Amino acid sequence: MSESVVPLPQSAGYAVVVGLGFVFAAGMMLTTYILRRYNREIMTAEEFATAGRSVKTGLISAAVVSSWTWAATLLTSTTQVYNNGVSGGFFYAAGATCQITLFACLAIKGRERAPAAHTYLEIIKGRYGKVTHFVYIFWGFATNILVTAMLLTGGSAVVSDLTGMHAVAACLLLPLGVVIYTLFGGIKATFLTDYAHTVVMVVIIIIFAFTTWATSDKLGSPAAVWEIVTKLAETQPREGNAGGSYLTMHSRSGGIFFVINIVGNFGTVFLDNGYFNKAFAANPASTYRGYILGSLAWLPIPAFCSLTLGFAALALEHTEHWPLGRPMTAAEVNSGLVLPNAASALLGKGGAVLSLLMVFMAVTSAMSAELIAVSTICTYDIYRTYINPQASGKKLIWVSHMSVIGFAYIMAGFAIGLYYAEVSMGYLYELMGVIIGGAVLSSALTLLSKRQNWHAATFTPPIATALAIMSWLVVTKVQFGAITYDNTFEDNAMLTGNCVALLSPLVLIPAFTLIFKQQNFDWEILKTKIFRVDEEEELAEATKVTIVDDERITPIKSQISVIASQLVEKEIDGYEHEQQVLHRAFFKCCIVCVTLTICLLVLWPMPMFGTKYIFSKRFFTGWVVVFFIWIFYTVFQVIIFPIWEGRESLCNTFRGIYWDLSGQGYKVKEWQQQHPEKLHAVQSQLQAQLSNQKGEPVMSSAVTPARSYSSDVKKE
Prior knowledge:
The protein is an all-alpha fold. Helices cover 76% and strands 1% of the residues.
């Protein structure tokens, strides 16, 4: 887009990218203080990585929705509708919902079989050892690198398109605010900012929806849009679609993308440690509910956003309202610029501002999850495992902070390189399945099957990936005669590479199992090989407890730990019950997840695909209404329900703020002394002691000298 037609000034880009980023950072610092003051939350290494393992269903759902709403979620889905019509948005949404739904099964088994884990890679190390651990560390990093690269390339392209801000500056500045609030709040910051970002994104989508389908003088109703788009089948028919129409689910290119989308997103869910982070942070009873309900709340975001803005682009591109004054080029479409241009055409500068805010929210919320995912791998799978097994909690937090900063700006540099190499977000999105899809099945079976042996787990990912890359390039060479960037981006080449990556392990894993015999793994071993962090020093410092190293008496760790100890006997039955709930819920969860997956991938789209049905005006209106209703379910699930679920904590917090503002601060301490069981810090310590009761080590395998604490708590 030339500078003369940029809808917003550069200052708007810097205001959003830098200013809004710092607003979130300041808000997170304030929130951290409030949680510490009124709920006694202490930022230990465990808290940084797992949020006390007590996050409830509503917040888990909001985090799933926000983390799975990348820049690509909004931009690529809209591009698919622009290219292939109504099938594009649905195929994107359904093809990327099933992975989150199915991941609920892994989340249950992860919590049940390794309740002290911080990453899924710790489980792989505990089961298969060092070599296999290194293999999956590589694929874990590859996943996080690809996802973050898509976030920055897509986000910087939109910022540059809307404001004229240089893409390099956007790549460097987009991570800044995210790094700051992630450093202060850890994964809790991710959950809280995910919630805030989700609220903004959903509200903006609803604004665009009401404008396009109800109030706009340019469009204003499903019938008006249907009439304009129906005429496009005659003036610019879509090759491969039934009747050349954009109003049909029968689309050759859309169907190919459907398969590529399914394959690639299995990798970016099952191999992204960020989703396991959230599973390990969840309250056990909330683990699978949060993922299932969150997946259903996520589906209308790409489906309805792309339906709205993709059809707005098709309807308005050849009118005087189109901001470019000309049709978009293929490069602009592949870069994800359909959405911002459609928003500008609909609402002028207001639409440009809203689309800028929406993409900024998508980039920063998903990037926060990626930063936490990488920091936990660096901290627990590399530093604590191979460099300093006896590291204290304070040292682990320091490593986590350095990992967040280092990864953010390594990726900023990588994204700048992709910008100058002219590699688009769309290309990366379709390539990711080729690169990481080969590790999906063996990774899942590590948690689901005790029979998968070391050889299958270790050798399947590199062999499957090599076969996928080879197939991708061979098809490109045979079909087009040369291996170039454009040729490797063609549908058939990408489809072949993605399918080989995901499906070849179906042959490799049974072959390795037959050749090298089955493993009969005892799951209880994971509970003795994965350790919690020693938090005594951090808790003592945070609660002003004097450390006495020379005494060899039974330690009184801190006021919080003492209270937790008194509650252990009361809560141990509840812990046992939760483990039983997880065990029983797995079968039920599998039935629900598989049923939803079959409905989304087969029963809903395939009859319309096979019959080549072209939407009538009435059917199209009904289609729009269904997603209108569905987006309001999203509003309830990820905006209203988390507030209702956390109403007691919110009430306690706001009451404490009122007491402080009215000069009655002493009442805060009185309330905390009267209701210690409601303090987050107590619950975190309770979980640690319950795990210890179950025989799970709280510290590293090295034995450390006994340390005791004076029971004299210093006055604050």
